[in-house]
Batch of 2 targets.
Target 1
Amino acid sequence: MGLLLHARAFKADIRSMDDVRSLFVMRGCQELLLPLEEAMDDYYLFCKVDMIDGKPQILWKEPMSDSHYNSAIWTISEIMGLLAWFFFHQFRYGTGGIFDDTEWVSYSKRNLVLHHADTSIFLKYYRPRQHTDMQEAVFGLKPDEVIRRALTSISRYADKRRPRYLDDTQKALVEDDPELQTAIRKRDALLDHFQQTPNLTLGQEVAEAERNIKNTRQRLRYRRKKEVRQAFSDEQAVKDINAQRAGRI
């Protein structure tokens, strides 16, 4: 909706979510349409963004590539403070359990909505693995729906303080990684050889070594950032508990 509002895609004078919330369905009607401008048929909702003359430009008529879309989803997940990134099959986290427990959704309807041939796919990939109400069932207690939803939701791990970037010290540790240092030494040796006896084959090998350094550094930073983000939960929990116990927060 935010993208549509930004593009001023509606025929009516709708500029914000407050405008949408102020609308109501007319008496005797069942719905109120929000028609889009005909020009929107030629625009992509998830469109390409490019740097032109040093400024980001939204190219509405060109689609965003899959790699850029996935990168944007990861970035949004990190901004939200999620431990795991968003992905296409979100039913696994909480929603799948709610969907499965809804009495008026039959197995056949669920399989049709999810494009599954049978229920086994849902059970294997979508049904949450955390069963929080087993103790209540054994002792004849009512299930705690609030706790169940909290524990099976992907937002359970959300914390906007979770780091998105490596600091200088963490980047330095990556630079000292033996794998990266080996790649750098190999590049330096090839470069020395190329400077002494320049030829096309050696030039290509130097370029390939440069790409290998870049890819290795990126992969190691990605791995390090993942470790830092995962370790954050325990480390921050200890800090928060101690601060609460000391009355600082």
Target 2
Amino acid sequence: MLKIKVMKQTRFILVMLTMLSFVLSEAQGGIGGYFSKFRPSKKWSVGLQISPTHLNGDADDAKIGLSGGAHIKYSVSQSFGLKLSGDIGTLKGGRIESDFSGNRKDGRWGNTSVVQQSESDFSGNTGNQAPTDDSYVFTNNFKDLNLTAVYTLGNISFLRPLRKLQLFTFFGVGTIWSDVKGNFENDDAAELQLDAANYYRTWGDTYFEPVDANGNVITRADFDADNSIIANANTYYKGRNLTIPFGFGVKRNFGRWLDLGIEWRSHWTRSDALDGFSFPLWRNRYSDFYTLLGIQASVKLGTKGEKEHYDWLNPMETIYADIDTAISIARRLEPLGKDSDGDGVSDYYDTEDSTECDKVYANGKAMDSDNDGINDCNDLQPFSICDDVDENGVAKDSDGDGVPDCIDEEPNSATDALVNVRGVAANNGACCDCENVALPTIIFDNNSSRISPASYGVLYAVAEKMKSCPGLAISATGYTVNKSGEQLAYKRATSIIDHLEANYGIERSRISTGYSTGTGVEYSRRRIDLGQVNE
């Protein structure tokens, strides 16, 4: 017996430790950390309960008892918690003038007109006897302790705000300390004597205590010696048993500090002695159940700064709040990402959010590199040195000599006149004077080696002069400040040579090329100066 008790106690302790370790591991995992909006939050609650009690056992005329107790709960998260509770109270009931086949004499159920039927006496023997007139009542003064895992059903909602009313369910393990006293009475003394005698002969005095008319206990030895007259019979049981509590409840939030609720809790008990009626009859139950319907009041506890309690926080609300924040931020950032004119500058910073140009400054304003009033995207000469330009951004040249008006010292030169870089007509002397020849400058577009149509007339005049002077050799000199500029200057000079050869038959050998770096550059590196080569 001692070994069995030790094994039961060890098993009970292991179950309790397993549940506790689970909760502690969850708590260390920081479940609440995912919901930063609700931190810090209260996790503890303590309270009291008062409960009507009901026993479902072998003495099936159950009465309503009463119990009171206390509880403490730790909420691991918004949905899970661990609750320790204890109660002290009474379980009451009995069997009213019934035979052991289930017929009752109070008319509540069974056939009271039956006189002859199969029944059993205390010894478990069955016979064709009349119903007994015995009555049995008991009282169990109990104490219990329970550890349960609680799951809250009402605080996770996807479509509505958290309500003030919650449902919860629980399951756990516990123990009950019972102190049971029962009593048999029978209107028929002879029948009571017969039943007690049969019981004694078969089962001994375990859980059974017959007394005589004076209230003295009749021992088995006394009974066997003189067949003492039994006036009454008591049953008794005192012990501790494992229980499995389970149930559900509802509670309501009454502000930051108080919860009120109702809890239905049933206990499966590993015992058939909670009603003191543990006789091995054919209809006897092997395990008793007792139930508590408790009214509870709980106070929510927390440290300074903890306003809300975990039990009343919907984890979905913080997710929705984060989504709302993200949407709000996205709306604020929307102008940063919107670019109505597609120039690469968001409308938030774009001072010209409807420009047609893709070449813009950092503020979205269209570029005008030469400040001539024509945007670079429409400017054929985006780096013109003149402010007086046409609608295409090309510097105006009134006399068509290839020199823009803004630097042309003779803006009305004769048509096809040879001019120098300042637009001054060259004095070539007589028809056949080939010794002192003044040659013009050819202007190219920025980063281009293509000859502008405006320079065709100038090159025509150069070709005519070279035809008139077969011995005239000229040079084409470009200007640069770096290696890439050297290549561009060379390409421009080559373009002039190709043009004179292809259109006027001027030999390439009569034209030499070269470039100058830095010095002598008066206003632009986009020009090629033509000059006479003195042999």
